[in-house]
User: Fold this.
Amino acid sequence: MRAKGLRPKTFWLPDFRLPEVKERIRRDCEALNRWYDRHPEVLKELEALRDGPGLED
Assistant:
């Protein structure tokens, strides 16, 4: 991997098995959904970017 120009890196992530982390994610998702309900044009713009030309699967 180093020969390909990559180097090892450590990333610390939340422990998604913990109930408090799951609850925080649920609350954040609900808040994001409420925001998108009030701003549907933003979601349409994001979908257009996702589906736009030049993006490969």
In short: The chain has a mean pLDDT of 89. The chain is about 55% helix and 0% strand.
